[in-house]
Amino acid sequence: MSWAVPARFARRELRGGLSGFRIFLACLALGVAAIAGVGSVRSAIEQGLEEQGAILLGGDAQVEFTYRFASEEERAWMESAATAVSEVTDFRSMATVLRDGTSDRGLTQVKSVDAAYPLLGDMVLDPAMPLSEALSNQGGVMAPVLADRLGLAPGDTFRLGTQEFTLRATIVTEPDDAGDGFGLGPRTIVLTQDLQGSGLLAPGSLYETEYRLLLPEGADLDATKQAALDQFEANGLSWRDARNGAPGIARFVERLGSFLVLVGLSGLAVGGVGVSAAVRAYLAKKTSVIATLRTLGATRAVIFRTYFLQIGALSLLGIAIGLVLGAAIPIAFGGIINDALPVPAVFTLHIGPLSEAALYGLLTALVFTLWPLARAEDVRAATLFRDALGSAKLLPAPRYLIATAGLLIALVGSAALLSGSARLTLWTAGGIFGALLVLVLTAFLIRWLARLATGLARGRPVLRWALGAIGGPGESAGAVVLSLGLGLSVLAAVGQIDGNLRAAIQRDLPDIAPSYFFVDIQKDQMPGYLDRLENDPAVSRIDSAPMLRGVVTRINGQPAQEVVGPHWVVRGDRGVTYAAQPDARTTVTEGEWWPEDYSGPPQISFAAEEAEEMGLQLGDTVTINVLGRDITGTITSFRDVDFSTAGIGFVLTMNPAALQGAPHTFISTVYAEPEAEAAILRDLANTYPNITAIRVRDAIDRVSELLEGIGAAIRWGAAATLLTGFLVLIGAAAAGEGARTYEAAILKTLGASRARILSSFALRSALLGAGAGAVAIGAGIAGGWAVATFVMETDFSVIWGSALGIVAGGIIATLLAGLAFAWRPLAARPAGILRARE
């Protein structure tokens, strides 16, 4: 059968305009626009990171060492491979200001540099001056927020450790700040040579040394990287280059973008419900046209192809509108977005995310329109004049079921492949499918209960009319419950996740967290440090441990990442400690601890949970590079380590003889009454200027700020989904306007007042909204529990305020949509309506 005749019919049908398809187009366009917009912003950031990678990194490549400077041999290699080398150290310290006999302190992330810094990019200062001038003669620059907090102005002095510096300017732009990663304190920059004797870069102190390299024109990055690793990887060298100048931000953008795309897909699924409802309502209005065509000899294939082409053309229009919006909005607001981002972004036309959004939109349109289109062709011509689709079979022909299943698999498969997180995608798809199934069953249950309760509502005409309308064959309960319920489910899940994350950070953790982390305590300072704290009645607990940092390089003689993959323990350096005996709070779960006087080959006690994730067994060997020296130990025990308490926790603990010869400092946590914290910090900082104090509450607040930004992005995505659901509600209400007009005419004829009819309309909307909201509570709690338990691995408790707000939102949304389309039915004259039905 040729497509020519159906194409001619479809073209003539489309001449009638877009009446009945505005909601269809809006749902599809909004879903596609959300995905295209998120993808475009992500691509803009990724392109910015790629183009500005060298500037963000501070050079073409970077060689990094943990808590030591490069040896002469390593420095010689860098000088031979690069045209310019800049040495940078990065560490935390306390900036101290002495004023009128008192001292004020603030945690700062210190970057000490040499005369060559920065190799790339420009440091912009206020007041404007060259960086070399600002750092000369014991000068320093710092972030404005830190200067304001300490009450500093250019010309004032501050201390780092025992060294005094003069603030010359505040930092406006730091070219490589995004490449430095997450810091707990604002930035301060000084010359490395001016820190000599400060005690901050002593052997064993916690700092990182980064060597930024400018490579010759046309240098092979892969070959240079391999040469560096071949010679010095065993010394603890780590490598980064301009192809991944800000890896932390790149990973964050990728993961958040993937999650937001999945939220967008949820919105597209909500829109798909609206698309399906719109197609069904449209075909119901076309029964006379279809009947005429069938009478004139049109086959089922002609009918199906006619409306398939028509709906297909409108779907392409909706997708095109969504793509234009998704591409144009990020470009239009590119300046504002760039100002809010910590990294450069290139806002232009990004074909990749637009193609991805178009694919999702096309597959969604096919999945949700194929079923109603297929059902239309199964209705006999003799019955098309009366509720064609309502009298059709529930399920279409098997070929359409198979095609729908195939399209659904293609949609989920594409999302799993393109999102970069197949596991999360499959869980999301399963959650959406499960929620849709529950909502479909709920819609049937609501209609069944409404029919059952109609007889019990005698004497209450308003309630009886509302229940009769919900349970009747013409009511759009299914579309209302599906669209609103799915949108509210996404919002409810986000609300539960956000609430539990806030609770874990702001409520649960501070109850058990220490007041301070003190780091860089020298061994000879420990007696005096402990004496100050142990004699303070406000201090309830002190935990201390020797602290080294090491890189896990090999497991059982093989490269660690080849054995366990990109597990967080083998990415970067990890904390390592030693202990002769486990303390009272250590629980050995398997194996045995070494004897207290053990002095044989190195032994390791490994964190049990991480060992299980990495597949480690007792007897396995682990090689750790500490300060350029490889130490290979045998795992002889596993122990519980709870990192959620914000206390001291080490993945690796070794016997003392294995590490005591290496230069190291001590780390300590102090649990004290809040009112005693200021005095503890003052006394210890005055006595030991090299010690860095990290107030746990400040660290928690810093993390909370970051999480708030993430939560806001996710909530905006969920709000877009809910908006789509509200559009579907409007479509369902508009589609049922004719039925409500006829119903109002009958009721007016029987003597019902407008107020009672309006109350009936409002009551049915409220009942459907309450049903959708109740399901959303269950789905949201289940989704929130799954994410909290399996993704965030934290405790879960129901946030009832958010959950009950969802029900209220469902009721209000359906009321607004229902009442918006109630006025014309109420105003219609019964005589004209009833004559038209004769």
UniProtKB/TrEMBL annotation:
The keyword Iron-sulfur does not apply. It is a multi-pass membrane protein. Pfam families: FtsX. It comes from the Bacteria. Residues 263-375, 720-825 form the ABC3 transporter permease C-terminal domain. It comes from Tropicibacter naphthalenivorans. Keywords: Cell membrane, Lipoprotein, Membrane, Transmembrane, Transmembrane helix. InterPro entries: ABC3_permease_C (IPR003838), Membrane_comp_ABC_pdt (IPR038766). The chain crosses the membrane at residues 259-283, 304-337, 357-376, 397-418, 424-450, 766-792, 798-823. One of its GO terms (cellular component) is plasma membrane. It is found in: Cell membrane. This is Lipoprotein releasing system, transmembrane protein, LolC/E family.
